[in-house]
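in:
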């Protein structure tokens, strides 16, 4: 292995492979950027693969013990999901309070307080309803990931249970299930792919050469060129794209998996620049970034506006990621479970 390449099998905190953490960092950055570019064409390309990439990486990193303890993974992600749902409303409460203080009116403060409690109640009730909805939209990912572990547990017990997500996907074309179960079903094929392809993908790191890099680059360019054919997709909305059903399904999963694997291999072939620590720092904060960044992006949109210049949105996205990392350290010190961690 060349000294100029990444240490393919080197590991950082928690046994995580460096390349996969780099992909997660790219993913959280694209999540933030995607919420800042509401109408820019780049949004279509981001949404074509960025969320599926998270589920693939989660599957690659998952070590199945075929134990009932795996079901505890549901609690691990649900606690942060509920916490960030509440934190989102608290942050907006502070913002509204600051605006109401300018009126020097106690009644205005009381109205803002009552409105915030109503919003919290609507969010908590909305989560358990059919077609679930919360104002802090990105928390759907945490629920969906929790469902992936449940689907995996039962699929390991009986292969027939692997059909459950498929049935849910079909049902979700008419009615989405509570607790973002429908989104979890859409995500599970990506998670399962990552888990089943784990050995093959990780072995590919060890055998990486210029041919792999060239092939990955060509495939990536080809996929980017065909993305507009299927148009805008959204896992949150359970939308596969604009092509006829079977074609859009195939296109969605094929594009997302191809782009994710190509990016993993390409990042592994880049020169090494001693970025282990910053990459680890951001990767370890990814739940917090996903959980709270939507407050910053919506605040930015309502005060400054979306889609100004792409370069400004890229710079803003980087600042939001950095701010979320700082917030992560604060919350982690208060209670690691709130950010999906153990002490």
């Amino acid at each position: 292995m060349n000294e100029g390449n990444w240490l393919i099998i080197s590991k950082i905190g928690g046994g995580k492979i460096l390349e996969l953490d780099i992909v997660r960092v790219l993913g959280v950055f694209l999540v933030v950027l995607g919420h800042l570019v509401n109408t820019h064409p780049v949004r279509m390309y981001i949404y074509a693969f960025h969320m599926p990439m998270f589920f693939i990486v989660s599957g690659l990193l998952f070590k199945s013990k075929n134990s009932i303890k795996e079901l505890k993974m549901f609690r691990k992600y649900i606690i942060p999901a509920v916490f960030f749902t509440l934190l989102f409303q608290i942050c907006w409460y502070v913002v509204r309070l600051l605006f109401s203080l300018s009126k020097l009116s106690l009644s205005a403060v009381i109205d803002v307080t009552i409105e915030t409690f109503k919003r919290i109640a609507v969010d908590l009730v909305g989560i358990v309803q059919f077609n679930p909805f919360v104002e802090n939209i990105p928390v759907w990912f945490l629920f969906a990931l929790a469902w992936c572990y449940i689907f995996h547990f039962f699929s390991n017990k009986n292969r027939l249970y692997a059909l459950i997500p498929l049935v849910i996907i079909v049902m979700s074309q008419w009615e989405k299930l509570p607790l973002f179960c429908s989104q979890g079903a859409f995500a599970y094929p990506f998670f399962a792919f990552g888990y089943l392809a784990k050995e093959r993908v990780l072995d590919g790191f060890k055998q990486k050469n210029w041919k792999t890099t060239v092939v990955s680059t060509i495939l990536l360019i080809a996929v980017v060129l065909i993305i507009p054919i299927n148009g805008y997709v959204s896992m949150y909305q359970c939308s596969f794209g604009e092509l006829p059903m079977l074609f859009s399904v195939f296109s969605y999963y094929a594009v997302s998996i191809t782009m994710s694997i190509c990016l993993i291999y390409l990042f592994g072939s880049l020169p090494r620049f001693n970025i282990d620590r910053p990459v680890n720092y951001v990767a370890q904060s990814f739940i917090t970034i996903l959980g709270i960044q939507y407050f910053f992006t919506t605040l930015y949109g309502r005060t400054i506006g979306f889609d100004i210049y792409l370069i400004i949105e890229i710079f803003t996205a980087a600042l939001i990621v950095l701010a979320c990392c700082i917030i992560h350290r604060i919350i982690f010190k208060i209670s690691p479970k709130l950010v999906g961690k153990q002490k």
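note: Residues 56 and 336 are 24 Å apart (CA to CA).
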